[in-house]
Protein backbone atom coordinates (compact mmCIF):
# COMPACT_ATOMS: atom_id res chain seq x y z
CA UNK A 1 0.00 0.00 0.00
CA UNK A 2 2.92 2.34 0.60
CA UNK A 3 3.92 2.29 -3.08
CA UNK A 4 1.01 4.63 -3.94
CA UNK A 5 2.21 8.14 -4.72
CA UNK A 6 0.57 10.53 -2.21
CA UNK A 7 -0.33 13.24 -4.73
CA UNK A 8 -3.75 14.64 -3.84
CA UNK A 9 -6.22 16.82 -5.70
CA UNK A 10 -4.79 20.09 -4.43
CA UNK A 11 -1.28 19.21 -5.59
CA UNK A 12 -2.66 18.03 -8.95
CA UNK A 13 -4.60 21.25 -9.45
CA UNK A 14 -1.49 23.31 -8.82
CA UNK A 15 1.22 21.17 -10.37
CA UNK A 16 -0.50 18.75 -12.73
CA UNK A 17 -0.69 14.98 -12.72
CA UNK A 18 2.52 13.08 -11.98
CA UNK A 19 3.76 10.29 -14.22
CA UNK A 20 6.44 7.59 -14.10
CA UNK A 21 6.65 7.55 -10.32
CA UNK A 22 8.96 5.10 -8.62
CA UNK A 23 10.25 4.73 -5.08
CA UNK A 24 13.70 5.85 -4.03
CA UNK A 25 15.71 4.83 -1.01
CA UNK A 26 15.09 6.90 2.10
CA UNK A 27 15.34 6.91 5.87
CA UNK A 28 12.80 4.92 7.93
CA UNK A 29 11.11 8.23 8.75
CA UNK A 30 10.01 9.03 5.21
CA UNK A 31 9.00 7.67 1.82
CA UNK A 32 10.46 9.24 -1.32
CA UNK A 33 9.52 8.95 -4.99
CA UNK A 34 10.94 10.25 -8.23
CA UNK A 35 8.21 11.33 -10.63
CA UNK A 36 7.66 13.57 -13.64
CA UNK A 37 5.45 16.64 -13.99
CA UNK A 38 5.01 17.75 -17.62
CA UNK A 39 8.16 15.84 -18.44
CA UNK A 40 10.23 17.50 -15.68
CA UNK A 41 11.63 15.23 -12.95
CA UNK A 42 10.62 16.02 -9.37
CA UNK A 43 10.98 14.42 -5.97
CA UNK A 44 7.95 13.67 -3.78
CA UNK A 45 8.68 13.16 -0.10
CA UNK A 46 6.22 12.06 2.55
CA UNK A 47 6.99 11.91 6.26
CA UNK A 48 5.42 8.78 7.66
CA UNK A 49 3.03 8.80 10.61
CA UNK A 50 5.16 8.71 13.74
CA UNK A 51 5.76 10.70 16.91
CA UNK A 52 6.90 14.23 16.06
CA UNK A 53 6.20 13.70 12.33
CA UNK A 54 4.14 16.87 12.14
CA UNK A 55 6.89 18.86 13.84
CA UNK A 56 9.59 17.45 11.56
CA UNK A 57 7.45 18.26 8.53
CA UNK A 58 6.88 21.83 9.72
CA UNK A 59 10.61 22.26 10.31
CA UNK A 60 11.49 21.04 6.85
CA UNK A 61 8.97 23.27 5.09
CA UNK A 62 10.00 26.31 7.13
CA UNK A 63 13.72 25.71 6.55
CA UNK A 64 13.30 25.23 2.80
CA UNK A 65 11.35 28.48 2.56
CA UNK A 66 13.96 30.38 4.57
CA UNK A 67 16.83 28.89 2.56
CA UNK A 68 15.15 29.76 -0.73
CA UNK A 69 16.32 33.35 -0.18
CA UNK A 70 19.88 32.33 -0.97
CA UNK A 71 21.21 32.69 -4.48
CA UNK A 72 22.71 30.75 -6.10
CA UNK A 73 20.50 28.18 -4.37
CA UNK A 74 21.67 25.94 -1.54
CA UNK A 75 18.46 23.84 -1.40
CA UNK A 76 16.12 22.31 -3.97
CA UNK A 77 13.16 24.43 -4.96
CA UNK A 78 10.01 23.67 -2.97
CA UNK A 79 7.31 23.24 -5.61
CA UNK A 80 4.33 22.25 -3.49
CA UNK A 81 3.16 20.97 -0.12
CA UNK A 82 0.29 18.97 1.34
CA UNK A 83 0.39 19.47 5.12
CA UNK A 84 -2.45 17.02 5.80
CA UNK A 85 -0.46 14.18 4.23
CA UNK A 86 2.95 15.64 5.21
CA UNK A 87 4.03 15.72 1.57
CA UNK A 88 6.61 17.94 -0.11
CA UNK A 89 7.20 18.21 -3.86
CA UNK A 90 10.75 19.25 -4.61
CA UNK A 91 12.99 20.04 -7.54
CA UNK A 92 14.95 16.97 -8.61
CA UNK A 93 18.71 17.39 -8.29
CA UNK A 94 21.28 15.50 -10.35
CA UNK A 95 23.87 14.46 -7.80
CA UNK A 96 27.45 14.00 -9.00
CA UNK A 97 30.14 12.02 -7.15
CA UNK A 98 32.02 14.49 -4.93
CA UNK A 99 35.69 15.11 -5.66
CA UNK A 100 38.52 14.53 -3.22
CA UNK A 101 38.29 18.10 -1.90
CA UNK A 102 34.51 18.04 -1.53
CA UNK A 103 34.60 19.43 2.02
CA UNK A 104 35.70 22.86 0.77
CA UNK A 105 32.63 23.34 -1.45
CA UNK A 106 30.50 21.75 1.27
CA UNK A 107 31.74 24.22 3.89
CA UNK A 108 31.19 27.24 1.65
CA UNK A 109 27.63 26.11 0.89
CA UNK A 110 27.01 25.46 4.59
CA UNK A 111 28.05 29.03 5.40
CA UNK A 112 25.66 30.38 2.77
CA UNK A 113 22.87 28.26 4.22
CA UNK A 114 23.62 29.49 7.72
CA UNK A 115 23.61 33.10 6.51
CA UNK A 116 20.07 32.81 5.11
CA UNK A 117 18.46 33.97 8.36
CA UNK A 118 18.79 36.91 10.73
CA UNK A 119 17.42 38.03 14.06
CA UNK A 120 14.20 38.94 12.23
CA UNK A 121 13.56 35.20 11.78
CA UNK A 122 13.58 34.36 15.48
CA UNK A 123 10.72 31.98 16.23
CA UNK A 124 10.35 30.59 12.71
CA UNK A 125 12.20 27.46 13.83
CA UNK A 126 13.07 26.03 17.26
CA UNK A 127 16.32 27.19 18.83
CA UNK A 128 19.24 24.74 18.78
CA UNK A 129 19.65 22.87 22.05
CA UNK A 130 23.04 21.80 23.37
CA UNK A 131 24.15 19.17 25.86
CA UNK A 132 22.45 19.00 29.25
CA UNK A 133 23.47 18.19 32.81
CA UNK A 134 22.60 14.55 32.16
CA UNK A 135 25.23 14.47 29.39
CA UNK A 136 27.85 15.70 31.84
CA UNK A 137 26.92 12.93 34.25
CA UNK A 138 27.16 10.32 31.51
CA UNK A 139 30.58 11.53 30.37
CA UNK A 140 32.04 11.58 33.88
CA UNK A 141 30.42 8.21 34.55
CA UNK A 142 32.28 6.75 31.58
CA UNK A 143 35.57 8.02 33.01
CA UNK A 144 34.88 6.39 36.37
CA UNK A 145 33.86 3.10 34.73
CA UNK A 146 37.13 3.05 32.78
CA UNK A 147 39.12 3.78 35.92
CA UNK A 148 40.16 7.26 34.78
CA UNK A 149 40.57 9.88 37.50
CA UNK A 150 38.62 13.07 36.88
CA UNK A 151 40.85 16.14 37.40
CA UNK A 152 39.76 18.68 39.97
CA UNK A 153 37.66 21.40 38.44
CA UNK A 154 36.40 19.45 35.41
CA UNK A 155 32.85 19.31 36.68
CA UNK A 156 32.84 23.09 37.04
CA UNK A 157 34.31 23.46 33.53
CA UNK A 158 31.55 21.31 32.09
CA UNK A 159 28.84 23.14 34.02
CA UNK A 160 30.17 26.42 32.64
CA UNK A 161 30.33 24.94 29.13
CA UNK A 162 26.69 23.84 29.20
CA UNK A 163 25.67 27.25 30.52
CA UNK A 164 27.68 29.07 27.83
CA UNK A 165 26.15 26.98 25.09
CA UNK A 166 22.64 27.54 26.46
CA UNK A 167 23.26 31.27 26.56
CA UNK A 168 24.81 31.55 23.11
CA UNK A 169 22.73 33.74 20.87
CA UNK A 170 22.57 32.64 17.25
CA UNK A 171 20.25 33.12 14.33
CA UNK A 172 21.96 30.98 11.69
CA UNK A 173 19.78 28.55 9.74
CA UNK A 174 21.10 25.22 10.99
CA UNK A 175 20.47 22.14 8.91
CA UNK A 176 20.35 19.90 11.96
CA UNK A 177 21.92 16.89 10.25
CA UNK A 178 24.40 18.18 7.60
CA UNK A 179 25.76 14.76 6.74
CA UNK A 180 27.46 13.33 3.69
CA UNK A 181 24.41 12.15 1.78
CA UNK A 182 22.35 15.18 2.75
CA UNK A 183 24.65 17.28 0.55
CA UNK A 184 23.90 17.07 -3.16
CA UNK A 185 26.88 17.96 -5.33
CA UNK A 186 25.49 19.32 -8.60
CA UNK A 187 26.88 21.13 -11.64
CA UNK A 188 25.59 24.38 -10.11
CA UNK A 189 27.03 23.82 -6.63
CA UNK A 190 26.27 22.03 -3.38
CA UNK A 191 22.69 21.91 -2.15
CA UNK A 192 21.33 20.43 1.05
CA UNK A 193 18.30 18.20 1.55
CA UNK A 194 16.39 16.68 4.50
CA UNK A 195 15.76 19.54 6.93
CA UNK A 196 13.58 17.66 9.41
CA UNK A 197 15.85 18.63 12.32
CA UNK A 198 16.56 22.20 11.29
CA UNK A 199 16.86 24.92 13.92
CA UNK A 200 18.19 28.42 14.49
CA UNK A 201 21.45 28.82 16.37
CA UNK A 202 25.18 29.41 16.14
CA UNK A 203 26.64 28.13 12.87
CA UNK A 204 29.82 27.03 14.63
CA UNK A 205 28.04 23.96 16.01
CA UNK A 206 27.74 22.67 12.42
CA UNK A 207 31.10 23.96 11.22
CA UNK A 208 32.44 21.72 14.02
CA UNK A 209 31.14 18.70 12.10
CA UNK A 210 34.28 18.83 9.96
CA UNK A 211 36.61 18.40 12.93
CA UNK A 212 34.41 16.05 14.91
CA UNK A 213 33.90 13.51 12.14
CA UNK A 214 30.28 14.43 11.26
CA UNK A 215 28.87 13.40 14.64
CA UNK A 216 25.21 12.74 13.77
CA UNK A 217 26.01 10.89 10.56
CA UNK A 218 26.29 7.30 9.45
CA UNK A 219 28.90 8.29 6.88
CA UNK A 220 31.62 9.64 9.15
CA UNK A 221 34.90 10.91 7.78
CA UNK A 222 37.86 12.83 9.16
CA UNK A 223 39.35 15.07 6.44
CA UNK A 224 43.11 15.40 6.33
CA UNK A 225 44.45 18.53 8.03
CA UNK A 226 45.13 20.56 4.84
CA UNK A 227 41.59 19.93 3.59
CA UNK A 228 40.12 20.67 7.00
CA UNK A 229 41.96 23.99 7.12
CA UNK A 230 40.86 24.88 3.59
CA UNK A 231 37.25 24.02 4.38
CA UNK A 232 37.13 26.05 7.59
CA UNK A 233 38.77 28.97 5.80
CA UNK A 234 36.18 28.72 3.01
CA UNK A 235 33.36 28.72 5.56
CA UNK A 236 34.64 31.81 7.34
CA UNK A 237 35.29 33.73 4.11
CA UNK A 238 31.87 32.85 2.72
CA UNK A 239 30.13 33.84 5.94
CA UNK A 240 31.98 37.17 5.90
CA UNK A 241 30.97 37.82 2.28
CA UNK A 242 27.34 36.95 3.00
CA UNK A 243 26.89 38.79 6.31
CA UNK A 244 29.64 41.39 6.53
CA UNK A 245 30.67 39.96 9.90
CA UNK A 246 33.34 37.55 11.12
CA UNK A 247 32.68 34.25 12.84
CA UNK A 248 34.26 33.45 16.16
CA UNK A 249 37.68 31.88 15.75
CA UNK A 250 37.38 29.35 18.56
CA UNK A 251 35.54 26.10 17.89
CA UNK A 252 36.46 24.52 21.22
CA UNK A 253 33.05 24.88 22.88
CA UNK A 254 31.24 23.62 19.77
CA UNK A 255 33.48 20.55 19.52
CA UNK A 256 33.24 19.84 23.25
CA UNK A 257 29.47 19.95 22.95
CA UNK A 258 29.53 17.07 20.47
CA UNK A 259 31.94 15.11 22.67
CA UNK A 260 29.45 15.16 25.55
CA UNK A 261 26.49 13.96 23.51
CA UNK A 262 26.43 10.19 23.78
CA UNK A 263 23.34 10.00 21.59
CA UNK A 264 25.46 11.24 18.69
CA UNK A 265 27.34 7.93 18.73
CA UNK A 266 24.39 5.94 17.36
CA UNK A 267 21.76 6.21 14.67
CA UNK A 268 18.64 8.26 15.31
CA UNK A 269 16.32 5.33 16.00
CA UNK A 270 18.50 4.31 18.98
CA UNK A 271 18.88 7.75 20.52
CA UNK A 272 17.21 8.44 23.83
CA UNK A 273 16.83 4.74 24.59
CA UNK A 274 19.85 4.17 26.87
CA UNK A 275 22.96 5.99 28.09
CA UNK A 276 25.16 5.36 25.05
CA UNK A 277 28.36 6.53 26.75
CA UNK A 278 27.70 3.94 29.47
CA UNK A 279 27.38 1.33 26.70
CA UNK A 280 30.93 1.98 25.42
CA UNK A 281 32.66 -0.44 27.88
CA UNK A 282 30.00 -3.11 27.23
CA UNK A 283 29.67 -3.24 23.45
CA UNK A 284 30.66 -1.40 20.31
CA UNK A 285 27.77 -0.50 18.01
CA UNK A 286 28.52 -0.33 14.29
CA UNK A 287 26.80 2.42 12.39
CA UNK A 288 27.68 3.29 8.83
CA UNK A 289 31.41 3.72 8.27
CA UNK A 290 32.52 3.50 11.93
CA UNK A 291 31.71 2.11 15.36
CA UNK A 292 30.74 4.04 18.47
CA UNK A 293 34.18 3.51 20.00
CA UNK A 294 35.91 4.75 16.86
CA UNK A 295 33.75 7.85 16.83
CA UNK A 296 34.36 8.55 20.50
CA UNK A 297 38.14 8.07 20.24
CA UNK A 298 38.24 10.57 17.39
CA UNK A 299 36.22 13.16 19.33
CA UNK A 300 38.30 12.68 22.47
CA UNK A 301 41.47 13.26 20.46
CA UNK A 302 40.16 16.42 18.82
CA UNK A 303 39.06 18.02 22.08
CA UNK A 304 42.31 17.09 23.87
CA UNK A 305 44.32 18.67 21.01
CA UNK A 306 42.23 21.84 20.95
CA UNK A 307 42.67 22.42 24.69
CA UNK A 308 46.35 21.47 24.92
CA UNK A 309 47.65 25.06 24.91
CA UNK A 310 45.41 26.13 27.73
CA UNK A 311 41.77 27.13 27.58
CA UNK A 312 38.69 27.36 29.74
CA UNK A 313 38.40 23.60 29.14
CA UNK A 314 41.97 22.61 29.99
CA UNK A 315 40.85 20.04 32.56
CA UNK A 316 38.38 18.53 30.11
CA UNK A 317 41.19 18.22 27.58
CA UNK A 318 43.33 16.31 30.05
CA UNK A 319 40.41 14.05 30.90
CA UNK A 320 39.64 13.47 27.21
CA UNK A 321 43.23 12.44 26.55
CA UNK A 322 43.17 10.03 29.51
CA UNK A 323 39.87 8.44 28.43
CA UNK A 324 41.21 8.02 24.92
CA UNK A 325 44.32 6.24 26.26
CA UNK A 326 42.16 3.97 28.41
CA UNK A 327 39.92 3.01 25.48
CA UNK A 328 42.87 2.30 23.16
CA UNK A 329 44.54 0.24 25.91
CA UNK A 330 41.43 -1.94 26.22
CA UNK A 331 40.74 -2.11 22.48
CA UNK A 332 44.09 -1.54 20.73
CA UNK A 333 42.83 -2.63 17.30
CA UNK A 334 40.43 0.32 16.92
CA UNK A 335 41.09 2.09 13.64
CA UNK A 336 40.98 5.83 12.93
CA UNK A 337 37.99 7.26 11.10
CA UNK A 338 38.21 7.03 7.30
CA UNK A 339 39.76 10.01 5.53
CA UNK A 340 37.41 9.78 2.55
CA UNK A 341 33.66 9.37 2.22
CA UNK A 342 32.54 6.20 0.42
Would you mind describing this structure in some detail?
The protein is of the alpha+beta class and 342 residues long. The protein has 2 domains: 9-91, Phosphorylase Kinase, domain 1 (2-Layer Sandwich), CATH 3.30.200; 102-330, Aminoglycoside 3'-phosphotransferase, Chain: A, domain 2. The protein has 12 helices and 11 strands. It has helices spanning 9-15, 53-67, 102-114, 133-145, 154-167, 204-207, 209-212, 225-243, 252-260, 276-279, 292-306, 314-330; strands at residues 19-24, 30-37, 40-47, 78-82, 87-91, 172-174, 183-186, 189-192, 199-201, 286-287, 290-291. The strands form 4 sheets. Strands 1-2-3-5-4 form a 5-stranded antiparallel β-sheet, sandwiched between helices. A two-stranded antiparallel sheet has the order 6-9. Helix 3 packs parallel to helix 8, helix 5 (154-167) crosses helix 9 and helix 9 runs antiparallel to helix 11. The protein is globular. The relative contact order is 0.12. The mean pLDDT is 94.
Topology record:
Layout lengths: L8 H7 L3 E6 L5 E8 L2 E8 L5 H15 L10 E5 L4 E5 L10 H13 L18 H13 L8 H14 L4 E3 L8 E4 L2 E4 L6 E3 L2 H4 L1 H4 L12 H19 L8 H9 L15 H4 L6 E2 L2 E2 H15 L7 H17 L12
Antiparallel strand pairs: 1-2, 2-3, 3-5, 4-5, 6-9, 7-8, 10-11
Amino acid sequence: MWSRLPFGDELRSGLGSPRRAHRLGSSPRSRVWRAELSGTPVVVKQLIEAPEAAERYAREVAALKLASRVGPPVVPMLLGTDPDERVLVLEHLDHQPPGEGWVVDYAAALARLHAATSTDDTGTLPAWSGPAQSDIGSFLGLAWTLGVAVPTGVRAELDDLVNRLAGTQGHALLHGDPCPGNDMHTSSGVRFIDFEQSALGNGLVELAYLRMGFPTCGCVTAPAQPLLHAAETAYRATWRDATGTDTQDDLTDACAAWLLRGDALVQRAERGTVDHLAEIPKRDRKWGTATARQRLVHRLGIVSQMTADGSELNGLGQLAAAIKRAILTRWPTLQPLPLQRP
